[in-house]
């Protein structure tokens, strides 16, 4: 890919020609689209001709030429000494160092976007394959160098010096317009943000630390006016950060249906992956049990089409399609499970693809979104009620996601109400029970249900030796705390 010589104007012309050919129903053009764009792989010719867009043609052409996306092709076609450098938007060196450590923790399990970050900015790895990078020693100093180079500095010390100046300088916002725009987003000053964008339209295409665009950050703040302003300024809805995380991933992460709909109307791709294979926006929504945005993203197109997605959507027909005539799981049911955590704050894990693990995980995902209708089919196939495939049993996740119907179904069918399990990141979620998690999140209906069904209120989790009452108090869930106190928790 590095040797390709591109002329962006020529590629733009080719994309327009490809679009015209697809809309005219040219078989060769339609074949190229289906081969390189999963969203259209199974679409009817008539549907393609009516709904295909220039973005789709650009995406297919970029994939043909060996690029992950059209923005990647564009960046390669128009090289610049500063092109691709990220901008500061947080002037806290410890915060940036956390990003450095995140890269260090995820390097071995990272998806292509993170490996490309290393390859792009660390001179030692510039020509290495993904597997070679994964297998190579990689130190804190290596990760620091990646972030220094990505921000336009030759060393970490140079980066640190600049951050310190920006952190105390009154003119930081004018010196770093991206920083000023982020500050306006953070405090909800839409007028200031719009003014900065008008004065410097290129902000819509620039990237901050970890490759985050202002559009990605605006979605994270659920700022619809800022999102609208950025889209009007030409922000790319499919520009991912250094983990492949696009604005649509962020909308899915935050269960922002209105913003997700806006992005989809502007051509946001449903099949782009972040944090590992299969990490589409839909999968991000399902990981957190965000049923509302998952239903919007799922629609008639569920990517990937494995068992955990089918179960999380509660689509009985998709679940059934994951089993062969002999009752065993199909290869597709077990595939594309590389995504298992939304950020490096979660522990490392290597999905095996073993049928038992796939079934157990699917049951967990169905309970996250409360899809009671498919639970019996999964258990019948062998999913275990008390399995803890990755950071949580079905009962724990049903409690976390406030799914009382799923909690009741699991208990009715033999789930251990007091089973200790894992949840979340490194500093919490060891030896917790479903009652601990329902109390922590303040889900009163689930707390009452668990107590009425005999949950042991005296069990202490492993890290801090806290009861469920203690969890409710620590996380400020006063209603739950008062209820558990009155119930006689030790």
Structural commentary:
By secondary structure, the protein is an all-alpha fold. It folds into four domains: 70 residues, no CATH class; 152 residues, no CATH class; 108 residues, Ankyrin repeat-containing domain (Serine Threonine Protein Phosphatase 5, Tetratricopeptide repeat), CATH 1.25.40; 106 residues, Serine Threonine Protein Phosphatase 5, Tetratricopeptide repeat, CATH 1.25.40. 54% of the residues lie in helices and 1% in strands. Strands 1-2 form a two-stranded antiparallel ribbon. β1 and β2 form a beta hairpin. The longest helix is centred in the N-terminal third of the chain and has 16 residues. The termini are far apart.
Quick structural summary:
With 490 residues, this protein is an all-alpha fold.
């Amino acid at each position: 890919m590095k040797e390709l010589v591109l002329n962006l104007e020529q590629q733009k012309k080719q994309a327009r020609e490809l679009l015209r050919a697809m809309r005219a129903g040219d078989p060769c053009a339609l074949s190229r689209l289906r081969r390189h764009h999963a969203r259209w792989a199974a679409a009817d010719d008539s549907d393609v001709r009516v709904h295909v867009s220039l973005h789709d043609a650009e995406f297919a052409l970029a994939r043909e030429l060996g690029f992950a996306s059209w923005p990647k092709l564009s960046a390669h076609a128009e090289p610049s000494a500063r092109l691709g450098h990220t901008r500061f938007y947080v002037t806290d060196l410890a915060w940036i160092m956390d990003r450095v450590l995140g890269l260090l923790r995820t390097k071995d399990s990272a998806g292509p976007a993170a490996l490309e970050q290393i390859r792009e900015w660390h001179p030692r790895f510039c020509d290495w394959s993904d597997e070679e990078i994964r297998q190579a020693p990689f130190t804190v100093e290596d990760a620091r160098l990646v972030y220094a180079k990505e921000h336009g500095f030759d060393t970490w010390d140079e980066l640190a010096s600049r951050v310190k100046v920006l952190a105390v300088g009154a003119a930081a916002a004018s010196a770093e317009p991206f920083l000023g725009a982020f500050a306006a987003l953070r405090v909800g000053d839409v007028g200031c943000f719009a003014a900065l964008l008008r004065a410097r339209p290129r902000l819509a295409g620039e990237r901050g630390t970890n490759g985050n665009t202002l559009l990605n950050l605006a979605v994270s703040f659920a700022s619809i006016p800022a999102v609208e302003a950025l889209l009007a300024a030409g922000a790319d809805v499919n520009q991912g950060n250094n983990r492949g995380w696009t604005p649509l991933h962020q909308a899915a992460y935050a269960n922002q249906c209105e913003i997700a709909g806006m992005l989809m109307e502007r051509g946001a791709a449903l099949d782009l992956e972040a944090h590992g294979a299969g990490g589409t926006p839909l999968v991000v929504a399902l990981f957190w049990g965000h049923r509302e945005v998952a239903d919007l993203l799922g629609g008639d197109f569920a990517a990937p089409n494995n068992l955990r997605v089918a179960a999380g959507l509660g689509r009985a027909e998709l679940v059934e399609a994951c089993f062969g005539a002999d009752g065993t799981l199909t290869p597709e049911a077990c595939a594309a499970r590389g995504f298992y955590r939304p950020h490096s704050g979660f522990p490392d894990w290597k999905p095996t693809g073993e049928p038992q693990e796939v079934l157990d995980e699917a049951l967990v995902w169905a309970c996250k979104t409360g899809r009671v209708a498919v639970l019996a089919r999964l258990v019948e196939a062998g999913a275990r009620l008390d399995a803890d495939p990755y950071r949580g049993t079905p009962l724990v996740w049903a409690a976390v996601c406030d799914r009382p119907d799923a909690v009741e179904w699991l208990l009715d069918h033999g789930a251990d109400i007091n089973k200790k399990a894992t949840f979340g990141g490194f500093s919490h979620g060891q030896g917790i029970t479903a009652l601990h998690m329902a109390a922590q999140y303040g889900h009163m209906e689930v707390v009452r249900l668990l107590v009425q069904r005999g949950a042991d209120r005296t069990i202490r989790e492993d890290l801090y030796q806290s009861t469920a009452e203690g969890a409710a108090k620590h996380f400020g869930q006063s209603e739950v705390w008062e209820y558990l106190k009155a119930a006689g928790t030790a």
